[in-house]
Design brief:
The chain has 302 residues and is mainly beta. 9% of the residues lie in helices and 45% in strands.
């Protein structure tokens, strides 16, 4: 039998939902989940909305001009509502087949304007199309924390013709239940703008992260990420690039990030591990803060 065109399947899903009985809604399960409950301030705070469809019908969830199909509501530990970053939450449409379990990812930090670190809770409200039935998920508690600042530096922006604009780099460590993690932040403080927060991955003890600026005021962080595995991270001062590369120590050498007499930077005592992923996301299981390029420019000697 020939499959129905996608537009017709979507239309039929709407019709089916419009005639859903109360027992049909009872066969639809909603759950909000988080992989972890502790987050660094301004990093992606992701939750998954899981929809289990045992109704025997396709379910189509999509925004309407008047209302999004899913909204999140965040409260502080004191019960105060946390305002949304936008008056309208926009979502991708979701078609859930019969007997299917679908997942919709929500970046809470991108949707809610957290004023400061603290304890918060979140729930989601799902509107079923053409029925105006609203269902509320379970409530999840989580923490937004500030971490511990290890290093900060304010420098000039070379591309600024006036020579007056500055950028501030900061490096933090943040203790999560699964270990100690390193983060970097780039800000334009005089403009009141956060340009980016960058997860640099797990930080092992026994080696203090080495932090340097190159001649163009771009940031480089070299740290021990695991057993005999070092990570070199680069963040461009204009926010245009963020990359990481793994390094392995050369036998009987102590890896170091050093400044050469010419003013350039080099890695000594370690070689880039070409067998490992060029980015450390797979190694550290960490989502990136943006879609910036992951390849690190090859400015370093081995």
């Amino acid at each position: 039998m020939k499959a129905l065109p996608s537009f017709l399947r979507r239309a039929l899903a709407c019709v089916a939902l419009a005639v859903c009985s109360p027992s049909t809604f009872a066969q639809i399960n909603l759950e909000l989940k988080m992989a972890r409950r502790s987050f660094f301030f301004d990093e992606p705070t992701q939750a998954s909305l899981i929809i289990s469809n045992s109704s025997g019908r396709e379910l189509l969830f999509e925004d309407t001009p008047a209302k999004p199909w899913v909204e999140i509501f965040v409260k502080s530990a004191q019960g105060r509502d946390i305002p949304a970053r936008s008056s309208v939450q926009k979502n991708q449409s979701l078609l859930v087949a019969p007997n299917e379990v679908a997942r919709h990812t929500l970046d809470i930090n991108a949707l809610a304007d957290f004023p400061s670190p603290g304890k918060y809770s979140v729930s989601a409200r799902v509107t079923f199309p053409d029925s105006n039935r609203v269902f509320v998920t379970n409530n999840l508690r989580f923490d937004i924390e500030s971490g511990t600042e290890r290093w900060t530096r304010t420098v000039g922006l070379p591309a600024d013709p006036s020579g007056l604009k500055t950028r501030t780099f900061s490096v933090f460590h943040f203790l999560r239940p699964e270990g100690l993690f390193l983060y970097a932040r780039l800000e334009a403080k005089e403009e009141g703008t956060l340009i980016g927060t960058y997860p640099l991955g797990r930080m092992s003890s026994g080696f203090d992260p080495q932090i340097e600026l190159d001649q163009g005021n771009n940031l480089y962080v070299f740290h021990l990420a695991g057993d005999d595995t070092y990570a070199l991270s680069q963040i461009n001062i204009d926010g245009s690039g963020f990359g990481q590369a793994p390094y392995s120590p050369i036998k009987k050498s102590k890896p170091r990030l050093v400044r050469q007499p010419s003013g350039g930077l080099a890695i000594q005592g370690a070689a880039r591990d070409e067998r490992a992923p060029r980015t450390l996301s797979a190694m550290n299981d960490e989502p990136k803060i943006s879609d910036r390029p992951s390849a690190l420019k090859n400015r370093f000697s081995k």
